[in-house]
Amino acid sequence: MAAKAFRKPLSRERVLTAAVALVDTQGIQALTMRRLAADLHVEAMSLYYHLADKEALLDGVVETVVAEIGAAVGRVGETGGDRSWRTRLREQFLAARQVMLGHPWVPGVLSGRRSIPAGVIAYYDSIVGTLVGAGFSYHLAHRALHAFGSLPLGFAQEIFSPASAGGDVAADAGLVAQADADPAARAEVDPAAMAATMPYLTKMMAAEIHDAADPTLGWCDSQVEFEFTVNLLLDGLDRLRVDR
Amino acid sequence: MAAKAFRKPLSRERVLTAAVALVDTQGIQALTMRRLAADLHVEAMSLYYHLADKEALLDGVVETVVAEIGAAVGRVGETGGDRSWRTRLREQFLAARQVMLGHPWVPGVLSGRRSIPAGVIAYYDSIVGTLVGAGFSYHLAHRALHAFGSLPLGFAQEIFSPASAGGDVAADAGLVAQADADPAARAEVDPAAMAATMPYLTKMMAAEIHDAADPTLGWCDSQVEFEFTVNLLLDGLDRLRVDR
DNA sequence: ACCTGAACACCGTTCAAGT
DNA sequence: ACCTGAACACCGTTCAAGT
Q1: Angle, nearest 10°, between helix axes A85-100 and A118-133?
Q2: Which nucleotides of C are covered by protein (CB under 7 A)?
Q3: Rounded CA gap, A131 and A138, in Å?
Q4: With an 8 Å Cβ cutoff, is A218 touching chain B?
Q5: pLDDT at residue A3 above 60?
Q6: pTM for the whole thing?
Q7: What are the tens digits of pLDDT across the range B80-99?
Q8: B111/A187 Cβ within 8 A
Q9: Which of residues 45-74 of B touch A (CB under 8 A)?
Q10: Inter-CA distances, B71 with B91, B119, B123, Å
Q11: What is the pLDDT of residues A98-149, one digit of tens each?
Q12: What integer is the mean pLDDT of A52-65?
């Protein structure tokens, strides 16, 4: 029919781009073969011509975001100036974070993957290059890589704000535990009970909110936390490094 | 019938214990309502009497492991001696890690959860208590919490060995990328090509394997990496802390 | 109070068949 | 070369019904 003639043929790339867009807007649980196919105006079975199975789809989706990070990090590298290794890595990690902010579901998906995208390996290779170029032994560079964890990819292991889950972000405004199947194990929203079950966190929140300029802005600024952690690690490594 | 009389009634706790055991042995993808019910010699629908839905099951499963960590960390606290805050936290994190080694799928599940188990909050609260007791400001304690990430729970964000996926662990022996749907993006296993696509990592591996006592043991000792990262953070925080 | 059978909507995937 | 229809096995979940 006529409509058919007007649509571009599918390709692995088009499928993956559509998949990333779908997850960005609808959350990870919306990523089904049938749903994705519908977005592409195609039958679910058509996808199998371009991707082996859903595992391959997930791998490809991660790979696509990693490529986007690689591009952003590359642009940082192009900027002139003879910055220190610390500044360069810091800028790279922060650039990666900017990309990651648009795909908050990636940490969750990545941690479930069994294979490492090739792009990730190339990226971490370049980091080792930066480190040894700055006088790191290969041994320390190796330790550094593990210590960095996912920071080079722009995200930290955040226990308290798992935005990874594509659900409602409104729920995790504070440190208050959400509804749980077992009433006995649930943290109370009642301030008095809260102070009883988590006395130090309560005082900490009070102190932080008092210090903050705008108390309504929320008390966990993840940008600040991210930069603090990056600097903490970079400073610590700098002290351990053997200058040449 | 007779068999029925011999089996204990179900309970939320029994269901969760069975669920953890199932995932430990069969992997996370084996955790289905029907499969879990079969393990308990019951119909799938019976589970809904004890758990609201599968989300509640996953929450409960995480909660169960967190409780196990809490118990292990508690035992560390009981040991006498006036150890420094650094030693105490280090021991706690390592104790948590011992528990986590038996449940390598937890990081993956936890990162997908939308709510934080109450036990996690209580645990992090006690960490804040340790920190402020050692002279930390609440502000620095807050930063420290975020910097720690998941280390207090006994695992690091491991990009290179995602054992989280309940699948085959044999595949992630090194830094070599697994099979990928796109041949062009796949890292080659051919050593020469490997050296070309990841020159620094290749040299790093060579240096590390040369230094290691037993080269066959594998070159990423996650216990050592874990302790290094913990110490790096604790040392860095110690320098930022205001002694009283 | 605790468990179940039948049924529903929705998955991923295969395979032979269309153009 | 690229896409599809029909079918299969397997999900989570509801609901009325059993004991």
Answers
A1: 160
A2: 2-6, 10-16
A3: 8
A4: no
A5: no
A6: 0.88
A7: 778 999 999 999 999 999 99
A8: no
A9: 51-52, 56, 59-60, 63
A10: 13, 11, 11
A11: 999 999 999 999 998 988 999 999 999 999 999 999 999 999 999 999 999 9
A12: 98
Kindly report the CA angle at A156 between A78 and B77, in degrees rounded to 5?
Answer: 145
The pLDDT assigned to B61 comes to 98
Provide DSSP, A112-137: H-SS--HHHHHHHHHHHHHHHHTT--
Q: How far is CA A58 from CA A49, B223, B242, in A?
A: 16, 29, 46
HEC secondary structure over B185-210: HCCCCCHHHHHHHCHHHHHHHHHHHH
**Nearest-5° angle of CA B96, CA B101, CA B105?**
105
Q: Which two tokens stand for residue A60?
A: 């490809």
Q: Which of A60-69, A169-178, A213-222, B28-37 has the lowest mean pLDDT?
A: A169-178
Q: How far apart are CA A230 and CA A162, in angstroms?
A: 19
Mean pLDDT computed over B52-73? 98
Distance from CA of A105 to the nearest CA of B (A): 9
- What does chain B come to in residues? 244
CA B123 to C1' D14, in angstroms, rounded, equals 38
Residue in B124, B125, B149 nearest the CB of A156 = B149
Lowest mean pLDDT among B175-179, B222-226, B238-242: B175-179
DSSP state, residue B170: G
Structure tokens at A214: 């705008």
Asked whether the predicted pLDDT for residue B160 surpasses 80, the reply is: yes
Q: How far is the CA of A140 from the C1' of C8 (A)?
A: 58
Contacting residues of B for A121, CB less than 8 Å apart:
175, 177, 187, 197-198, 201
Torsion angle in degrees (nearest 10) through CA of A23, A26, A32, A36: -80
Q: What is the pLDDT of residue A30?
A: 97
Note every long-range contact of A169-178, with CB atoms under 8 Å and residues 24 or more positions apart, other chains counting.
Answer: A171/B114, A171/B115, A172/B114, A172/B115, A172/B116, A173/A218, A174/A205, A174/A219, A175/A201, A175/A205, A175/B116, A175/B121, A177/B115, A177/B116, A177/B117, A177/B118, A177/B121, A178/B114, A178/B115, A178/B116
Pairwise CA distance, residues B15 & A44, whole Å: 36
The pLDDT of residue B243:
53
Lookup: nucleotide whose C1' is closest to A46 CA: D3
Which of B129, B142, B211 lies closest to A139 in CB terms?
A: B211
Q: Which residue shows structure tokens 């104790």?
A: B95
